Amino acid sequence: MKILTVLTYYRPHTSGLTIYAERLARAFARRGHQVTVMTTQYDPSLLLEEDLDGVKILRVPVAARISKGVIAPTFGLVATKLVAQHDVVQMHLPQFDAPGVALRGRLFGKPAVLTYHCDLLLPPGFFNRFVNAVVDFQNNMAGILSNHIVTYTQDYADNSPYLSHYASKLTPILPPVELPDPLPGAVRAFAQEHHIQERRPVIGMAARFAAEKGVEVLLDALPSILKKYPKAQVLFAGTYQNVMGEQAYSDRLMPRIREYEIGGHWTFLGNLDPVEMAAYYPSLDVLTVPSLNSTEAFGLVQIEAMMNGVPCVPSALPGVRQPVLMHNMGRVAKIGDPADLAACLLEVLGEPEKYGGNAEAIKKTYNPDAIAAEYEKLFERLMG
């Protein structure tokens, strides 16, 4: 099968969406399919064409940026050529160009499948409201023109104003999740570097430093946690400097965080690659995902943590609450409630044996090959 995957950003850009797309594309390639990823050259230093892990990547030059989006004048021309050459088109939303790609699928008789990752909610402001309105319109046009839509969970679909319009052509498929094995001695070295034995418990947060991720909720919960565990520390994995559109948010929170950094209670690790993340998770006692809105639809990091036997405390957002509810590995906290987040974290830290779960079963459930097989069944049904 010739599969064309289309999305705005791809590796080396890092987000839940790009990680999902990369894992799925690699799984398709391993399973014998010819896979092409069409994306944008958001960074001029990136190659226009390259092959990675059996996946052909084609990047379209970018002329300008608008907020978190890009303008690529030749995107439509390249899409026309590629859609005609492939058997099925898979797009990742949110994506401005998705309606045009889906329309080309219709014109060429190629099934077009959308994977809807989350809503796009930009910070307040007139311009951002305009951008949100445009993206919402484009997403709805893509929904109308596509043959089918995939989302992570029925829970998210039931609570999404967008997905509720397309219930008749919607299939929930769990996301692909995998982690490499840590390098020999890496877990011990990580623990030594961050004084894990002396500063426990360790609370992990793996995300971009962005307003929708709810960093301040964890920050406000810390005093209650430190009251019971004076040596507790937070290890924050992810981009935290110069995050696009988040400078004002960073400026507001950083003075408070610096105080915790000085006391050894907060450490920024920066953006870790998958091998480094494999050493990160075993060092945690609990992972939290205190996200605040529907830009978070699942929280892939929860599954990565659970694969390492680490329980989680997410917020009660639709979709985001599902990993804990499905696998009984943690507690769900009220959205945006620091007191409840602290209480849930303290309960999980106080009874770790209660939230152990079955790491091996979770690995099998989210294995990218198993997820790719679900997509294959859908593609074959649409093609047939």
Question: Can you walk through the features of this model?
Answer:
- It is a single chain.
- This protein is of the alpha/beta class and 384 residues long.
- The protein folds into 2 domains: 2-176 and 367-383, 3-Layer(aba) Sandwich (Rossmann fold), CATH 3.40.50; 186-364, Glycogen Phosphorylase B (Rossmann fold, 3-Layer(aba) Sandwich), CATH 3.40.50.
- The protein contains 14 helices and 15 strands.
- It has helices at 16-30, 75-85, 98-108, 126-145, 154-158, 186-193, 215-228, 247-262, 274-280, 300-307, 322-327, 338-350, 359-365, 368-383; strands spanning 2-6, 34-41, 49-52, 55-61, 64-66, 69-71, 88-93, 112-116, 148-151, 170-172, 202-206, 233-237, 266-270, 286-289, 312-314.
- An 8-stranded mixed β-sheet has the order 3-4-2-1-7-8-9-10, sandwiched between helices. Strands 13-12-11-14-15 form a 5-stranded parallel β-sheet, with helices on both faces. Strands 5-6 form a two-stranded antiparallel ribbon.
End-to-end gap: 13 Å
CATH evolutionary superfamily of the largest domain: Glycogen Phosphorylase B
Poorly predicted runs of 5 or more residues: none
Largest sheet: 8 strands, mixed
What is the global morphology?
globular
Topology:
Layout: E1 2-6, H1 16-30, E2 34-41, E3 49-52, E4 55-61, E5 64-66, E6 69-71, H2 75-85, E7 88-93, H3 98-108, E8 112-116, H4 126-145, E9 148-151, H5 154-158, E10 170-172, H6 186-193, E11 202-206, H7 215-228, E12 233-237, H8 247-262, E13 266-270, H9 274-280, E14 286-289, H10 300-307, E15 312-314, H11 322-327, H12 338-350, H13 359-365, H14 368-383
Parallel strand pairs: 1-2, 1-7, 2-4, 7-8, 8-9, 9-10, 11-12, 11-14, 12-13, 14-15
Antiparallel strand pairs: 3-4, 5-6
Helix pairs in contact: 1-14, 2-3, 3-4, 6-9, 7-12
